[in-house]
Amino acid sequence: xxxxxxxxxxxxxxxxxxxxxxxxxxxxxxxxxxxxxxxxxxxxxxxxxxxxxxxxxxxxxxxxxxxxxxxxxxxxxxxxxxxxxxxxxxxxxxxxxxxxxxxxxxxxxxxxxxxxxxxxxxxxxxxxxxxxxxxxxxxxxxxxxxxxxxxxxxxxxxxxxxxxxxxxxxxxxxxxxxxxxxxxxxxxxxxxxxxxxxx
Length: 199
Description:
This protein is of the alpha/beta class.
């Protein structure tokens, strides 16, 4: 009699622990983390995400890189945003269809999504996937960039994005997500990943 009562209870415990384990493992498989980073702050956030959930890390590179000079880059990006020009990507991603979750990370440029990230979102079909934006900025926030990701990724599940202040290149402040600041950001990223059920 006791055994008859214990067996279903043990089976339930086994199934419950299996479900809990399966939920955690969803954050491990088929994840792509694509990012654009000029001052390496977005790269630092991308690496923190990968450290926590795994996945493949891919930096977006252009066929014709932006100028080193900040002012010249601002002028070029303004022209691209105004005309809708999409800079060709040097980066190629094989078998995009195998990924279930795609993180897209970028800085805010002119209060908008950077043109190279627009190139990526137009070039690859992400329908049916979960798309998660993350962002670094100079203190002015995401602008319209997260909204643009939503608009461009119809047919996907968009999860809540993450944003944090990075460098301020026009003032010569470049990589700031390092040392103690990086430790602070690691805590914030973990909290965010838990909130969106990926950790």
